[in-house]
């Protein structure tokens, strides 16, 4: 039986044109939860290199109030 | 010579004229420090992800400039001391990522003000329908309160107090009468209940009294039957 990998390919590795930047908070919003937590890379399929870039960009967006630090789950 | 970009948030209460003054003053302070602004982009008024200085909205301004490494720290001190700037973020960028200044500051501010006016005009009908009735009710309430105040001020407290006391006394008397009537009714209700309870008790006692007689009769019948059986034998 041939080995079938379930490992997803990083979307930033696939699309080299898609850059990770703190100003594109609409893209970054896909990688945080409703509470504002950063989703781990093994859940989203992002590679370690781009996960580091994502984490830095999300933290920069939080600093300038483009993304929330935390959202109270009672407000959903 | 490095290239930097600073995104800062201006206080939302600043309108087009004062916003232009703030942006120009920031650029002048940057020039004094030693940097040279290359491009400026106005994002317009946006909703913040969290409150900053009790403000829900803020005007985002993006500034690209180049300069020595020390100018970023001095520029940060300038932005920190400016009370009209809520927050700022400085990052280093590559030369290829520097924006080209397409429009000057006046046209950008005018365009953002038009956009904000359009959004306000599109959202006005719903707002007016929601706000008008509340305003009317508040005005009515104000007028009612004003008339009430006038009446109280004209009548005086001393004149009103005896009337209110007599009214209170009347109402207390009426309440006492009602209470007495209620008590009487309650007593009338209670008496028949007691009577019925006594009757039921009597019935129970009668039943208890009857039952021994029946037992005696049944015993007598049993004795007669036993006697008849013995006679037959």
From TrEMBL, chain A:
Key word rRNA processing present: no
Alphabetically ordered keywords of this record: Ribonucleoprotein, Ribosomal protein
BP GO annotations: translation
Any one GO MF annotation of this record: small ribosomal subunit rRNA binding
PROSITE patterns for the chain: RIBOSOMAL_S18
Family: Belongs to the bacterial ribosomal protein bS18 family.
Protein name per the record: 30S ribosomal protein S18
Organism in which the protein naturally occurs: marine metagenome
């Amino acid at each position: 039986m041939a080995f079938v990998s379930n490992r997803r390919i990083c979307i930033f590795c696939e699309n080299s044109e898609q850059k990770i930047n703190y100003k594109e908070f609409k893209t970054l919003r896909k990688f945080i939860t409703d509470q504002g937590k950063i989703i781990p890379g093994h859940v989203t399929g992002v590679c370690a290199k781009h996960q580091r870039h994502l984490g830095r960009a999300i933290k920069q967006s939080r600093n300038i109030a483009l993304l929330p630090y935390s959202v109270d789950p009672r407000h959903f | 010579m490095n290239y930097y970009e600073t995104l800062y948030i201006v206080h939302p209460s600043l309108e087009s004229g004062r916003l232009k003054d703030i942006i120009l003053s920031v650029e002048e302070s940057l020039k004094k420090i030693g940097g040279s602004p290359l491009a400026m982009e106005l994002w317009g008024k946006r909703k913040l992800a969290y409150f900053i200085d009790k403000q829900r909205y803020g005007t985002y301004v993006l500034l690209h400039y180049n300069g020595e490494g020390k100018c970023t720290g001095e520029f940060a001190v300038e932005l920190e001391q400016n009370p009209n700037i809520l927050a700022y973020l400085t990052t280093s960028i590559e030369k290829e990522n520097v924006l080209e200044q397409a429009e000057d500051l006046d046209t950008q501010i005018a365009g953002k003000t038009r956009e904000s006016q359009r959004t306000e005009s599109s959202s006005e009908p719903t707002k007016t329908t929601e706000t008008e009735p509340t305003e009317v009710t508040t005005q009515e309430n104000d007028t009612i309160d004003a008339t009430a105040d006038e009446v109280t001020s004209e009548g005086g407290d001393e004149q009103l107090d005896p009337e209110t006391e007599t009214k209170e006394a009347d109402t207390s008397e009426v309440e006492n009468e009602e209470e007495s009537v209620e008590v009487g009714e309650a007593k009338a209700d209670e008496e028949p209940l007691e009577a019925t309870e006594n009757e039921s008790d009597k019935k129970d006692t009668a039943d208890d009294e009857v039952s021994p007689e029946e037992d005696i009769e049944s015993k007598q019948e049993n004795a007669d039957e036993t006697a008849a059986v013995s006679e037959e034998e």
